[in-house]
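Translate structure to sequence.
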C-alpha cells in the first residue's frame, strides 16, 4: 500500500513526540532519584546523632552491669583504650577495653574475651577485673548457644554467671565440677559452661600479665609487647631442617601464672 503525501510527515512527528516523551520521563526519573537521595541523606543526618546516642546508652548500661556507677566517678566510654589482637583473649583483630577510675586511680578494667569452644560457635564475653586481680563481674555479650540449655550463661536467664564474682586465679579450680573444678555445669549442657570458665580464666591470665599497662590504659605498651612476642615467635620458628629452637615467650611475656 502506497503512502499518502501527509503520512511521512505524520510518522516523523510521531517519532519526535515519542522521543520527547522518553526524554521527559527520563528527566522525571532523574529528578525523582535526586530528591529521594536528598531525603535519605537528610534523614540520615538528622537521625545519626540519635542512633549514636542510643548505642552509647546501651553500651554504657552493659558496662554498668559489671562495674556499677557507685564504684567509679568517670564515664567508662570516655576511658576506652585499644587492645591489640590476642590469642589469650581470643581476639583476632584489635578491640576495645575500658577503665573504671575513682579520684583518678584505676579501680577496674573491662576486657572482651572470645572463645570458640562453645557448643554452637563463638561466645563473646565482657569480663570486669578489679585492680587487685579479682573478678568484678562477667556478662555474655554475644553467643548462639541452645535456648533453654547453653543460654543460661546470660544473666537474665540464670544466676550462673555470678559464680565468677570476686574470684581470682588462685581462689578456685578453674574447671566445671564434671572436670574436677569448682564451677557448676548445666544439666544436659557441659560444653557451654566449660568454654565460659576457660575464657574467663584466660582474661584473668591476660590481666595479670599486663596489669600495669591495662590499669594505665596504655595501648602502646600492649601493642609493643605483642609485637615483641611475635618477633620472638618468628625467631624460634622451625629451621630448614625441621628442628625446633627453645620455645618462644608467649604474647604475655612469659608471665602466665602457673597452676
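Result:
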Amino acid at each position: 500500500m502506497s503512502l499518502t503525501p501527509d503520512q511521512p510527515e505524520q510518522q516523523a512527528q510521531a517519532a519526535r513526540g515519542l522521543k520527547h516523551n522518553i526524554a521527559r520521563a527520563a528527566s522525571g526519573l532523574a529528578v525523582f532519584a535526586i530528591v529521594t537521595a536528598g531525603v535519605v541523606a537528610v534523614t540520615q543526618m538528622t537521625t545519626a546523632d540519635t542512633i549514636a546516642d542510643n548505642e552509647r546508652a546501651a553500651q554504657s548500661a552493659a558496662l554498668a552491669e559489671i562495674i556499677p556507677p557507685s564504684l567509679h566517678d568517670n564515664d567508662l566510654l570516655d576511658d576506652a583504650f585499644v587492645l591489640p589482637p590476642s590469642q589469650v583473649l581470643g581476639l583476632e583483630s584489635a578491640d576495645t577495653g575500658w577503665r573504671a577510675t575513682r579520684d583518678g586511680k584505676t579501680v577496674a578494667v573491662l576486657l572482651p574475651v572470645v572463645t570458640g569452644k562453645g557448643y554452637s560457635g563463638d561466645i563473646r564475653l565482657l569480663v570486669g577485673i578489679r585492680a587487685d586481680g579479682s573478678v568484678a563481674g562477667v556478662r555474655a555479650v554475644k553467643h548462639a548457644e541452645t535456648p533453654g540449655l547453653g543460654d543460661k550463661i546470660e544473666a537474665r536467664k540464670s544466676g550462673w554467671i555470678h559464680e565468677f564474682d570476686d574470684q581470682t586465679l588462685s581462689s578456685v579450680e578453674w574447671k566445671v565440677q564434671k572436670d574436677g573444678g569448682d564451677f557448676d555445669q548445666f544439666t544436659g549442657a557441659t560444653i557451654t559452661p566449660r568454654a565460659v570458665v576457660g575464657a574467663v580464666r584466660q582474661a584473668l591470665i591476660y590481666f595479670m600479665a599486663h596489669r600495669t599497662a591495662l590499669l594505665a590504659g596504655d595501648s602502646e605498651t600492649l601493642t609493643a609487647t605483642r609485637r615483641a612476642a611475635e618477633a620472638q615467635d618468628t625467631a624460634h620458628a622451625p629451621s630448614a631442617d625441621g628442628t625446633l629452637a627453645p620455645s618462644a615467650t608467649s604474647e604475655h611475656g612469659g608471665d602466665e601464672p602457673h597452676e
